[in-house]
Amino acid sequence: MAKKNKVQRPKARKPRGFPDRSGAELVTERLMLERIAGVYRSYGFAELQTPAFEYTDALGKFLPDVDRPNAGVFSLQDDDEQWLSLRYDLTAPLARYVAENMDALPRPYRRYAVGTVWRNEKPGPGRFREFTQIDADACFAPAPHADAEIIMMFIDALKAAGVEDSDVEIRLSSRRVMTGLLDVIGVDPEDQATAGTVLRAMDKYDRLGADGVALLLGEGRKDDSGDYTEGAKLEARQIDQVLRFMEGSDMADAFAGNQAGTEGAEELQKIVSTLTELGYGNRVKLDPSVIRGLDYYTGPVFEAALTFDVENEKGQVVQFGSVGSGGRYDGLIARFKGQDVPSVGCSVGVSRLLTALASKAAFEEADGPVVILALEEAEMPRYHRMAQALRGEGVAAEVYLGGAGMKAQMRYADKRGASLVVIVGEDERKAGQVTIKDLRAGKEASQNIDSREQWTEERPGQETVGEGNFVEAVTTRLA
């Protein structure tokens, strides 16, 4: 007898760093994004959608890693043998769009964008290759007033999303200030190796403190795991200057007449003064440890940090940290047109912010639909009419279609996140009634019930109403 060939079936698996997402998580995210977008629109920003793919050369030198087609981005060649790459942020496509439509756009040009971005990087805990961003940018908008407005709008957006005023701090610094500091201590800002090592060391000030940063500015540092990080090899005098700058309250004192540093510090003070006058000053802090994308930004840079305590994966109590950032990038559009276009923007870390709101219970989890149990097959048209009546009042509703018994239907409603189920069995139908079961209220009440008899008598979270009144009863409970 001939042996049957084994059927080769693909293994059901998803690529690393590309999460599956469904149900309440997506509904909650969309609600949060709409609240943020509503703030952006209230400031006069209009939405722009750009394609997922851009020509790779349009992304330019600002790739996350080195500038070859598959480093940091996902790329392919089209039928013209030109390289295309999935966008890794929403700002590079904006720069291309502005350059392409420069003469037709209003000045300033104010846009916001919501979309998926992709990073060809090693995935890890909380680090994905595909995620959502929501950005707002103003082009042809010079400093410092456009910067102050973006920061003010950023704070308002976080508040609309559910962040308490007392829980957010905007930490503000400047690329020009950092350039001035490097000049003062005798490091060439164009020396990518040394200047980059100095700035990366400064970026670790919050985590390592002055002693740890001093080691990284000097010969190097060995961490707790035994890994050794090579230092910037600065002299003691230079290290002392950097640390005094990091610890000082007045940035201008650090520059001793250096033009770039002095102008950068003055620009920051103007931003802070404007925000203070408008009632936002108590949420803004000058912080020289904010070192962000210094090949990208040309002026003020900032990040939004949430200051409440959470427990990390090691069980340690730490501050939650950054949920978004932004800054000024006057040179990005110049790649296409050869002239600087003063621009500033902000970007919210959507996944980080959702995690923060969940940890503070600041954003309610979206309810699933009201589930109408299907207990009699002959009554299916009745059940569907009931669902239609609820939808007519703006209530999401569905009829159970799985063909199982009542217990299984109730388990299904629970898995769907339904707060209410509607029950019309034979007894209810004959009496012209509808039973509404509030699953969440029932769970809460059941904690205080001691016996089956008490449960049967009280039926917590449950009411029976006339069939003609069931829509009003459902909407009242949901409200």
TrEMBL record:
Transcription regulation is among the record's keywords: no
CDD domains the UniProt entry points to: HisRS-like_core, HisRS_anticodon
SUPFAM superfamilies, per the entry: Class II aaRS ABD-related, Class II aaRS and biotin synthetases
Record's subunit section: Homodimer.
Major localization class: cytoplasm
GO BP, sorted A to Z: histidyl-tRNA aminoacylation
Compartments in which it is found: Cytoplasm
Keywords for the protein's UniProt record, in alphabetical order: Aminoacyl-tRNA synthetase, ATP-binding, Cytoplasm, Ligase, Nucleotide-binding, Protein biosynthesis
EC number(s) reported in the record: 6.1.1.21
Chain intervals with Basic residues compositional bias: 1-16
UniProt family annotation: Belongs to the class-II aminoacyl-tRNA synthetase family.
Protein's recorded name: Histidine--tRNA ligase
Catalysis: reaction(s): tRNA(His) + L-histidine + ATP = L-histidyl-tRNA(His) + AMP + diphosphate + H(+)
Superkingdom assignment: Bacteria
Residues the record lists as binding L-histidine: 89-91, 119, 133, 137, 292, 296-297
GO cellular component, one term: cytoplasm
Annotated region (Disordered), positions in chain: 1-21, 443-464
Compositionally biased intervals (Basic and acidic residues): 450-461
GO-annotated molecular function: ATP binding; histidine-tRNA ligase activity
Organism of origin: Parvularcula maris
PANTHER family for this protein: HISTIDINE--TRNA LIGASE, HISTIDYL-TRNA SYNTHETASE
Domain Aminoacyl-transfer RNA synthetases class-II family profile: 30-381
